[in-house]
Amino acid sequence: MAAFEKVASAQALTRRFDKAGDFGSALLGGEFDTTPERSEPFLATLRLLRVGDMVVQQGTTSAHRTRGGIFPGIAVLIVNLQAAERPARVNGAEVGTAEAVLLGGGAELTVYNPRYLDWAALALPLPLLEELVEVAPLPLRVRGASSLLALRPDRAARLASALSAAGRLAEDLPAMVDTPCCASNLAMALREEVAAALTAEAEIRPRPRAVGQALRIVAAAEAFMEADLTRPVYTEQLCAALGVSARRLHDAFHAALGISPHAYLKSRRLMLVRRALLSREDGPDLVKSVALGHGFWHLGHFARDYRALFGELPSETLASRGAKGSARGRPRKAGDGAA
Description:
Strand content: 15-25%
Largest sheet: 8 strands, antiparallel
């Protein structure tokens, strides 16, 4: 399937990341943007295993946030592989080890992961999901929907074990997946575990009304920001555009994303700075002018926050772009001034 083309040439692979953006781009089944928590460097390991028309993604990730959407025609089942004192929140709901999130094609995804976590996701075609849950008493065939499922604990444990084993296989014994017998047996085993987990007394947890309202406010805020991706946006502007109070906006962002609007908008402005640095012609004061143009008046704090988010200084972003330009035969002009 086109959505899984990143593993079309290799049945199993393991990748490690120290930049959240690269990690988000590597995820399969949709389009995703990932940003790290500022309190620690971003680190992630992603193990990909393709068996038949299904793809297992098993990851270990540090604290981060991910926003995105699932491709049409795809279903994604996400499980938490470890008990956590502060479990991840997916679309505003905490996900424990006996729960799973089921996303149909077109569904939006908002993840807030406040700590290191082991997780797994199984991406598969929607028709295959419908086949596997044909006898399920749950309305799982709604496309574009996101559902939090409460699984029977023993079935949840078996499903988590199967997905964990798939991740270990991808990292430790990737050549074995090329063996037809191994691949077909693993595919059948995964199908059985998914079907059993979703049809054995699974229940859909209702989403609290407050969570739904928070997600709608955040979605409206993002639509306002996406109308002009080059425009820095501030909290007061969002409140005025959405017709909500600062308290309501703050509560909505915390419920949906685990972050304040101020911190979210600051990260967005840093991302706009990075985009500008990667797209504009170099100049002696490029970093300084771009930073000031996006509301960063204290250049020392700006450089610190930029490195916390992207793992490099603004000047290093320019240097990496310059190195690529040199490799293509384009000389790079001299430097930046702020960082």
